[in-house]
């Protein structure tokens, strides 16, 4: 394991409007479980048919930077924010694959809620040809899939072997035992709108940035 541990890297996509401890803490625990040395946070450019973020791209990017300063596990990649077009995970993964080659193990991290809706993502069938999926638990979301077909798909790809994640480039789904944080960006935005405190829900530097820029109120 130690010989291959540094090879697996992971991407973590999302709106991050704003980034909060429900994003960061489960992923820190996941990283320990599967020996991830680096997680690249990639804020996305939201497709027009979805609810648009309240904070603009630059603000969401800055909040991620503030949240991960001094934490060597995380780095930021703002390539999706640089594009004019909406972000489709599959296209970003294809781009990354062409950069790192076919053999490098690559993972994409999602929360349990995202796994449950994954089959609605653009070209979802292609995702596992490009990466593994690492899934963090999230309170309130079922551990089983919505339909027998979806469950079959999960069963066919699920692994409990960390070795497999490191030794194969893509194709596996790993359901991690991560601590549950009942936090969502939606709930934080609502609390801020009502001028309720959020200081235990997100890093202090992010809370301060939100205050300074009068975001979400
Ligand atoms: P919103 O409330 O605006 O929909 P969110 O809090 O769900 O946002 P996103 O930026 O949409 O956050 O999520 C990015 C990724 O983080 C997704 O894969 C999501 O499943 C995961 N995630 C977000 N919050 C949690 C949490 N509390 N526990 C585990 N995973 C989470």
TrEMBL record:
UniProt family annotation: Belongs to the NadD family.
Species: Buttiauxella noackiae ATCC 51607
Enzyme class: transferase
Name the record gives this protein: Probable nicotinate-nucleotide adenylyltransferase
GO molecular function, one term: ATP binding
Record-listed E.C. numbers: 2.7.7.18
UniProt function note: Catalyzes the reversible adenylation of nicotinate mononucleotide (NaMN) to nicotinic acid adenine dinucleotide (NaAD).
Pathway in which the depicted protein is active: Cofactor biosynthesis; NAD(+) biosynthesis; deamido-NAD(+) from nicotinate D-ribonucleotide: step 1/1
Swiss-Prot/TrEMBL keywords: ATP-binding, NAD, Nucleotide-binding, Nucleotidyltransferase, Pyridine nucleotide biosynthesis, Transferase
SUPFAM superfamilies: Nucleotidylyl transferase (SSF52374)
One GO term of the biological process aspect: NAD+ biosynthetic process
Stretches assigned to the Cytidyltransferase-like domain: 11-191
Family matches, as InterPro entries: Cyt_trans-like, NadD/NMNAT, Rossmann-like_a/b/a_fold
Known catalytic reactions: nicotinate beta-D-ribonucleotide + ATP + H(+) = deamido-NAD(+) + diphosphate
PANTHER family listed in its UniProt record: NICOTINATE-NUCLEOTIDE ADENYLYLTRANSFERASE-RELATED, PHOSPHOPANTETHEINE ADENYLYLTRANSFERASE
Keyword Transcription regulation: no
NCBIfam families associated with the record: cyt_tran_rel, nicotinate (nicotinamide) nucleotide adenylyltransferase, PRK00071.1-1, PRK00071.1-3
């Amino acid at each position: 394991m130690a010989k291959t541990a540094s090879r697996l890297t992971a991407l973590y996509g999302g709106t991050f409007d704003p980034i909060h401890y429900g994003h960061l803490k489960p992923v820190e625990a996941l990283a320990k479980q599967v020996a991830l040395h680096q997680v690249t946070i990639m804020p996305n450019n939201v497709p027009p048919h979805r609810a648009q973020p309240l904070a603009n791209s630059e603000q969401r990017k800055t909040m991620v930077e503030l949240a991960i300063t001094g934490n060597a596990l995380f780095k930021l990649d703002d390539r999706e924010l640089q594009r004019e077009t909406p972000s489709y995970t599959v296209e970003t993964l294809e781009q990354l694959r062409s950069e790192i080659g076919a053999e490098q193990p690559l993972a994409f991290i999602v929360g349990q809620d995202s796994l449950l809706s994954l089959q609605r993502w653009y070209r979802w069938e292609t995702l596992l040809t490009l990466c593994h999926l690492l899934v963090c638990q999230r309170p309130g979301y079922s551990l089983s899939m919505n339909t027998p077909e979806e469950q079959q798909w999960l069963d066919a790809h699920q692994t409990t072997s960390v070795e497999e994640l490191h030794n194969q480039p893509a194709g596996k789904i790993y359901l991690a035992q991560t601590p549950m944080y009942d936090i969502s960006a939606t709930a934080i935005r609502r609390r801020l709108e009502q001028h309720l405190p959020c200081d235990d829900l997100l890093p202090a530097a992010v809370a301060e940035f939100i205050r300074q820029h009068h975001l979400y109120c």
